[in-house]
Amino acid sequence: MDVDEFIETKDLAKVYTFGTVEVAALRAVTLSVARGRLVGVTGASGSGKSTLVNLLGGLDRPSSGSIRVDGRLVSDLSKKELALYRRNTVGMIFQSFNLVNAYTAVENVAFPLLFAGVAKSERLRRAEELLVTVGLEARKDHRPTELSGGEQQRVAIARALVNRPQILLADEPTGNLDSKTSRQIVEILANLNKHQGLTVVMISHEKDLLREFADELIGLHDGAVVDREVLRQPL
Amino acid sequence: MRISDYIGQACGNLWKKKLRTFLTTSGVVIGVGALVCMLAFGQGIQRNVTDQFKKLDLFNYVNVFAAGGPDRPGESSDPDDDGGRRAEHGRRRGGPVPDANQPSPRLDAQALERIGEIDGVEAAFPEMRFPAQIRLGAKELFTLVQVLPADVGRSGLITLRSGACYASNEPNELVISDSLLHRLGVKDPETALGTKIEVATLTLDFSFTRLLQMVFSSGGQALPFARENYAFTVVGVAGRMGFMGPLPMQSDVLIPPGAAAKMRKLSLTSVWDLFAPSGGTASYSAVTVKVKSPQQVEPVKKEIESQGFRTFALMDQLEQMRIGFLIMDMFLIAVGMIGITVASLGIVNTMVMSILERYREIGIMKAVGATDGDVQRIFLFESGTIGLLGGLFGLSLGWAVSMVINEVINILMARQGAPRMDYFSFPWWLCLGAILFSILVSLLAGVYPTRRAARVDPVVALRHD
Q: Could you write out the DSSP letters of every residue in B89-123?
């Protein structure tokens, strides 16, 4: 294994079974992502993009093949180890934001720290700091229903960062946003990648936007990698 | 996660659904309240009985019966089997076995004296009771009169509400229970002191005149009974006595032996009394022995049994009483559990609803790093909090209802002249146990829903709308 290959999948496959029908969402995907890279994943609906991110994020388990992150075989982790991997190694951002409507912005950002056993005062302090980073300090006491789509996604980004992860996985973070807000969100992710050295895997339909900010592009079709384009060489 | 965070999460989530939490908790409150009420009643009865026994030193008493005399409850009275029965009794008690061929010793004044001299015996007095009509003014009531020596009466055996026990064994003085006095129309015990009461006894009358009356008349006149009237002065009014009163005082009127000896009367406490010799030393149907401490009951009993008498001690019945109380408690718990069972179904329903409503939130929890255990514990703390609140308020409700019922019973019993009592008891273990039990039941009710929550697939939950 190359030392630069931070994320590595080998013959990764995921098959969903609906009664007697089997649907292959991913077929033998083998790829690698170096540490500190921003990788865009594109593809039509049903091409397996979200499944790939769910597997990389430890939300789901592969039917076959392996995932290795920083040398650690994620696909073999127990349920509890997988939860700790999600808590400590990855931060996830979703198209539909997935914020808890009953909580305020700051409470949503602090939410992951609850499971890490961080004291409440420290949780809120770190959450407020991150809301400043994403420019939402004035909206910290607002609930998700009182925020715009872009603001909600910025809260979601802050939440993904609160446990100081090494990888940021974004599943169509601009899917529910207008073009201007989409650019702002991608800019935030690109900045995190550049300035904090976070490894970012971002799914998007907006290929042009990805070309502008991503280091690499991976194209998926019918669950298989059909295209891989290096846009910027690692420094 | 920290314990404080679990508690905070549980309280916060329950507070968000106030009405549902209130309704679910109300079910637990009613269930726990009913259970607490039932158990407190059982404990109250148990406490009152044992306290009364201890207060009256009833565990220090031994009843002595002549081996061939009246039977103890539940024993055979076959006169042909007298010796065998005594032998069997001795074997069963582990005491000395009287010789079956020896004649049964008489339970008379000499035997009483011998029993009184046994080491550990504080007092021994014969159990003598006879039926009588008690008249005060125009009111007349039937009751059993007990003959009780003055020294025994003054030893603290009787709880006096006013006056004192007669000072000697001779005067025509009596102690009457306040309930009988109440039924005779006297409301204030103090006013009864010094009052003359007429005690009318029945005697067997086989005189020639009586026989002639029997031959030529009908109805009550056709029986060989005569009525004798004696005047007594009330010197003391005792608390609870008579039927259901404390042993061995189960008569409403106590008179001294000297006065009783001067009365013509027909004792009906035992059929043996009918056949007792009219002259010479009378034998008693039973003798009550008071020992100095409960530890001395067994050696005193053995010594008495070695003299050829049979014994009965309440101490022997203690285990039976405990079993009886346990059965009563079990029954009360079973009734109380109906409410708890219904309440626990309410908790299951609430928790399942809560999990369905927060399905997506569970997905988010897992996506940001919550383990299955974290999710399960968050919901278990919620059901546990319902149990804690239900336990606390249920205990309060049970206590409040018990107080109301206690007042009502006391008002009704006061009309019968009974003294005020607490019919419910709330020992610390009952209060603590009720709360812990409520939490335990709520946690058990939460097990299925929380396991379901822990098994939620985050991928599916995050797509859930």
A: HHHHHTS----TTSPPPP-BHHHHHHHHTSTTEEE
pLDDT surpasses 70 at B6:
yes
CB contact set of A37 (below 8 Å; sequence gap of 6+): A6, A193, A199, A200, A215, A216, A234
By the CB < 8 Å criterion, does B44 face chain A?
A: no
**In the block, residue with structure tokens 């009563």:** B328
Both tokens of B59, joined, read 């565990």
- The answer to whether residues B361 and B261 belong to one domain is no
Cβ B132 vs Cβ B198: under 8 Å: no
pLDDT for B465: 66
Count of residues in chain B: 465
Q: Are residues B278 and B330 in the same domain?
A: no
Which residues face A7 on adjacent strands? Answer: A33, A69
Q: Which residue of A has its CA nearest to B366?
A: A83
The CATH number given to whatever domain includes residue A128 is 3.40.50.300
- Return the pLDDT at B282: 58
Distance CA A195, CA A167 (A): 14
Amino acid making up residue A175? G
How far apart CA B19 and CA A232 sit, in angstroms, is 58
- Return the residue of A nearest to B13 by Cα: A102
Does residue A22 lie in a domain region?
Answer: no
Q: Do B5 and A114 touch (CB under 8 A)?
A: yes
In a domain, A160, yes or no: yes
Q: Report CB contact under 8 Å: A111, B9.
A: no
Domain hosting residue B406, numbered range: 3-53+321-463
Interval B275-321: pLDDT, tens = 554 444 556 778 888 888 878 888 999 999 998 888 888 777 777 77
- Count the helix, strand and coil residues of chain B and give each as a percent rounded to the nearest 5: 55, 15, 25
DSSP at B425: -
The pairing of strands B286-291 and B121-136 is antiparallel
Give the pTM. 0.65
Dist. CA B200–CA B182, nearest whole Å? 19
Q: For residues B323, B328, B334 and B340, what is the CA-based torsion angle, rounded to 10 degrees?
A: -110
Indicate the residue of B2, B368, B372 with minimum beta-carbon distance to A112: B368
Whether A1 maps to a domain, the answer reads no
ipTM reported for the complex surpasses 0.95:
no
> What is the total count of domains within chain B?
2
Q: How far apart are CA B360 and CA B465, in angstroms?
A: 7
Instruction: Provide the domain limits for residue A212.
Output: 35-64+76-230
Question: Does the beta-carbon distance from A88 to B369 stay under 8 Å?
Answer: yes
pLDDT exceeding 70 applies to what percent of chain B? 81
| pLDDT at residue B400, rounded to an integer | 94
Contact residues, chain B, for A99 at CB < 8 Å: 364
State whether B369 and A83 contact (CB < 8 Å).
yes
- CA of A231, closest CA in chain B: separation in Å? 31
Three-state DSSP at A144 gives helix
